[in-house]
Amino acid sequence: MPKIHHFELLPSTNTKAWELLESGENPPFVVTASQQSAGRGQWGREWISEPGGLYLSLALNLDLEVDKSAHLVLATVWGIAYHLNCQEIPVKIKWPNDLVLLGRKLGGINLETRIQGQNIPQAVIGVGLNWTNPVPPTGINLQAFTGNKITSIAQLTSLTSDAILYGYEYYCHHGIKALLDSYLEFFANFGQKIVFEGYQGIITGVSNRGELKVKLTSDNASSEIYIPAGRVSLGYN
After folding, report:
1. Of 72, 95, 141, 229, which is the most exposed, with the fewest CB atoms less than 10 Å away?
2. How many CB atoms lie within 10 A of CB 129?
3. What are the pLDDT digits (tens) for 91-127?
4. Where is the BPL/LPL catalytic domain positioned along the sequence (predicted)?
5. How buried is 35 (Cβ within 10 angstroms: 0-12 exposed, 13-18 middle, 19+ buried)?
6. Is it the case that residue 43 has pLDDT exceeding 50?
7. Alpha carbons 61 and 6: distance in angstroms, whole number
8. Measured between alpha carbons, how far is residue 23 from residues 18, 50, 72, 97, 161 in Å?
């Protein structure tokens, strides 16, 4: 279990983690906050961080090529999904990096990296999970799940930290093909119909670069395309 730095209120756990790295703190370590005033989700979106949720960032030393940064996202979200399923919480993964429970959003990942040349030497992996905090209609918290075997925010913090490290270690030891196979076991979007740039299609999987694989079904299109993260929003049922 990495060292944990806990704060009652922070603008952002990711920002604090970078500050600690710059001050000489040795990774891996974890930053948590009871509440964030300026939490960040993926693509710079605001992450509402009311009391009762888990707001966690893990700082990590890496030896990863720049063009493989998506692998770290896949490893992180898979590691957390796997560990929650081991607790009999049937979490699935909504592409590319959301955790869903009973079709509603349980949490998400926000990866931030520093680049040197063609390598990523360090990353901060931010995770937000709904524990007892209020959520919108498309969300769910773990308290609302009757089969929940996690009894405290401390237990959830430990599980999440271990899960991130486990996911990365699994990737390092087994490679992207094995990781992607494991990721797809929890993939929530198989068979989902979408429209992308005017073309209709059906989601068939995820590529080893983290792109969404879509089989086009429009009359004038019959090929499979790969859509990078951030180009399409899949929504919630």
Report:
1. 229
2. 24
3. 999 998 999 999 999 999 999 998 888 999 999 999 9
4. 1-191
5. middle
6. no
7. 20
8. 9, 28, 24, 29, 22
Q: Say how far apart CA 185 and CA 187 lie, in whole Å.
A: 6
Closest CA to 206 of 103, 15, 75, 33: 75
* Backbone conformation region of residue 81, classed left if phi is above 0, alpha if psi is from -120 to 50, else beta: alpha
Question: What is the 3 state secondary structure string of 86-155?
Answer: HCCCCCEEECCCEEEECCEEEEEEEEEEEEECCEEEEEEEEEEECCCCCCCCCECCHHHCCCCCCCCHHH
Around 62, how many Cα atoms within 13 Å sit in the side-chain half-sphere? 28
- Encode pLDDT of 172-204 as tens digits: 999 999 999 999 999 999 999 998 888 889 999
CA neighbor of 221 nearest in space, from 205, 203, 197, 200:
200
Secondary structure letter of residue 42 according to DSSP? G
Is residue 60 within 8 A of residue 26, CB to CB? The reply is no
Query: For 144, what's the count of Cα atoms within 13 Å in the CB-facing half-sphere?
Result: 18
Q: Contact at 8 Å (CB) between 154 and 34?
A: no
**Cβ(200)–Cβ(193) under 8 Å?**
yes
The model's confidence at residue 45, banded by pLDDT at 50, 70 and 90, is: low
| Three-state DSSP class for residue 54 | strand
Residue 121 tokens read as 């030497």
Q: Which helix (H) or strand (E) holds 10?
A: strand 3-10
- The reported pTM is 0.92
